[in-house]
Amino acid sequence: MYDIVIIGAGPAGLSAAVNTSFLKLTSVVIDDTQAGGALIQAYPWKKVDYFGFYEVSGKELAEIFVEHARKNGVEIIEGEEALDIKKLDEGFEVITTKNSYKGKTVVLATGIIGTPRHLNVKGEDLEGIYYYLKDPEGYRGKKVLVVGGGDSAVENATALSLNGAEVYVAHRRDEFRAMVKNQERLFKTNAKIFWNTEVKEFVGNKKVEEVILFNNKTGEEFELEVDNVFIFIGSVLKKEFFQRLGIEMEGNFVKVNKDFMTNIPGVFAIGDITPGIKRISKAVYEGEAVAFSIFKFLKNPYWGKND
Ligand code: NAP
Q: Fewest 10 Å CB contacts: which of 89, 90, 145, 198?
């Protein structure tokens, strides 16, 4: 029986594990893919500016986080998806695709990056339409459409353009939501931006060949021939997993109290699945904060009542 079973080995889950190790609580971190979270899964190549790290790649930063955790004796299990959490007389049992793990408490740090939002338009299931950019250098000379106006769309469009792709960006508004710094980088590239523009349909025979777009102000429709499409319109929380566990939601987020505890005593949630900005620093902070919350929950220290 671990003190804590942490589901998700991104910055939030790893930070929780490291910080609970300082408090001499035992933990295991389970990840359905590879430890490192969105940093490694969504943008390993991207230069990330995380406080104290100037333009470190997502992969490098993930490796630093993982190494820090391992050096503190954190046990990390990769390639196991958590399917269910059962309440025991004492604590919980987390059932994964391969094993089960018992913990006095559970921390949900699953993130949302694994479930990209879809446009839900005709032809979206054609080949050549992606929701991640694994290799920005792989599209040199290709004509690509990027859909969206947030940091993901703008940063990925910039990377594609700087790596020699012919880039078009379609955004449904006349301004981007992305950080100004990222917008300025995109504006310096050759990417062409279609403002107030949405996708009506993807056309192709097995693979996408053309996109039918429309201007949502004028209603004008136009076609764009493409080799590939990247859709970056945000991510959605896998609500069903949480709802099935009886966890209370707050809109699209998991509802937590000031100790990051959900409505189920002993089950905590941190990172992108809780309300607030989606930033590495928030995930790391919540990992640290939840460690103290769990220490208080399990050990009831004299100082725990005052804050
Ligand atoms: P996001 O910020 O939620 O942006 C999604 C974009 O897609 C928005 O521009 C939105 O348009 C558009 N959109 C949503 N649904 C759409 C639909 N059905 N049809 C057309 N367009 C649609 O998502 P994200 O870019 O993936 O970023 C997620 C979070 O991670 C953000 O908080 C972001 O700041 C953060 N992030 C940060 C960095 C960084 O710091 N470098 C990098 C990546 C992500 P509207 O603007 O009209 O709503």
A: 89
